[in-house]
């Protein structure tokens, strides 16, 4: 059996890029919860476009594009709330929003670093973020807010 793990060194995102991603994700989540669209199935998805690097995107039988990665927002925040409140284990342990944001963003930064490390530094890499609800994780968006940012 062959090992298909990419052979590259992981590089941490710059502080500037982490701040840009954090601000963007917080804006998306505030819009999502303010619109009353934060449910147990709500996802944060991202696609990464690396300049000069072409790679085919995976597709499903229905022809949907497969995202590079996604995170279930309800793992971190309470579903069906009109404002962001700690959910799941965070709620049970009485941990505040700062801890929730730190954990969610650590996971997101790690996933983004996997895709951007082969082209370190990440300057010119475009990160497209969606937050919302799909019919299935790979299906059409029922409701979504999105933002596209270029890393520095």
Write the layout of secondary structure elements.
Elements (H helix, E strand, L loop, with lengths): L14 H20 L8 E7 L19 E4 L15 H6 L3 H20 L9 E9 L6 E10 L2
Antiparallel strand pairs: 1-2, 1-3, 3-4
Structural description of this entry:
With about 150 residues, the protein is α+β, with helices and mostly antiparallel strands. The protein has one domain (about 15-150). It has three helices and four strands, in the order αββααββ. It has helices at about 15-35, 90-95, 95-115; strands at about 45-50, 70, 125-135, 140-150. It is globular. The termini are far apart. The mean pLDDT is about 85.
Give a nutshell description of this structure.
The protein is an alpha+beta fold. The chain is about 30% helix and about 20% strand. It has a four-stranded antiparallel sheet with strand order 2-1-3-4.
What's the main sheet like?
Answer: 4 strands, antiparallel
| Oligomerization | single chain
Which value, in Å, is the CA radius of gyration? Answer: 16 Å
Strand content: 15-25%
Globally, the shape reads globular
Helix content: 25-40%
- End-to-end Cα distance, whole Å, is 39 Å
Strand order of the largest sheet: 2-1-3-4
H/E order of the elements? HEEHHEE
Number of domains: 1
The number of helical segments is: 3
State the low-pLDDT regions, or none. none
Global structural class: alpha+beta
| Average pLDDT metric | 84
Total strands: 4
Quickly list its features:
152 residues, alpha+beta, 4-stranded antiparallel sheet
């Amino acid at each position: 059996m062959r090992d298909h793990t990419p052979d590259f060194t992981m590089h941490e995102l710059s502080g500037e890029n982490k701040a840009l991603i954090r601000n963007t994700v917080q804006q998306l989540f505030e819009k999502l919860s303010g619109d009353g669209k934060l449910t147990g199935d709500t996802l944060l998805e991202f696609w990464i476009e690396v300049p000069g690097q072409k790679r085919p995107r995976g597709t499903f039988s229905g022809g949907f594009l497969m995202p590079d990665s996604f995170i279930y927002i309800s793992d971190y925040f309470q579903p069906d709330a009109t404002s962001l409140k700690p959910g799941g284990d965070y709620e049970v342990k009485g941990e505040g929003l700062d801890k929730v944001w730190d954990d969610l963003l650590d996971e997101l930064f790690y996933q983004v670093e996997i895709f951007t490390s082969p082209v370190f530094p990440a300057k010119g890499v475009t990160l497209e973020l969606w937050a919302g609800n799909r019919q299935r994780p790979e299906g059409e968006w029922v409701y979504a807010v999105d933002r596209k940012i270029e890393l520095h």
